[in-house]
Specification:
By secondary structure, this protein is mainly alpha-helical. The protein has one domain. 73% of the residues lie in helices and 0% in strands. Helix 3 runs antiparallel to helix 4 and helix 5 crosses helix 6. The longest helix has 24 residues.
């Protein structure tokens, strides 16, 4: 019975993450991004928080002041890296970090784990430990 409850919980978390992933990739405006952050910022799932961090980091684009832009960027970067430190095998966290590092201007110096994340994701894909939907997003949105 206990394993059945655990299995049900994992399925709920898996499907929730799939919904969040689809919503994240469908965001088209600052307003939609703010709604997304408000909706998911309190979620306890590390995978969901990966997508929230990405949207938080994107908010730097909307700030006028360069110092404010950098503060927003660095706060989201620290949060994402802390989540990865706590959950180093989380596939969504690694995908989001790779996605962000590849899209961040090199002047910000946020590119130190690109190779590590690529290797991690390639191994997970080869071992079929990634959902097909996430695999499609990885190939579509990163240099893999």
């Amino acid at each position: 019975m206990n394993s059945l409850v655990s299995m049900c919980f994992l399925l709920v978390v898996f499907f929730e993450t799939q919904v969040v992933m689809d919503e994240f990739h469908g965001l088209n405006s600052e307003k939609e991004e703010l709604v997304f952050m408000n909706k998911y910022s309190k979620d306890s799932s590390a995978s969901v928080q990966a997508y929230v961090c990405a949207v938080e980091m994107k908010q730097a684009e909307y700030a006028f002041n360069p110092i404010t832009k950098l503060k927003i960027f660095n706060r989201a970067k620290r949060k994402l890296n802390l989540l990865i430190d706590i959950n180093p095998k989380n596939i969504d966290l690694r995908y989001i970090r790779l996605l962000l590092q590849e899209r961040t201007p090199s002047i910000l110096g946020y590119n130190d784990t690109i190779d590590e994340d690529k290797t991690f994701l390639q191994k997970k894909i080869a071992a079929k430990e990634i959902s097909k939907k996430l695999e499609v997003y990885i190939y579509k949105n990163t240099s893999l």
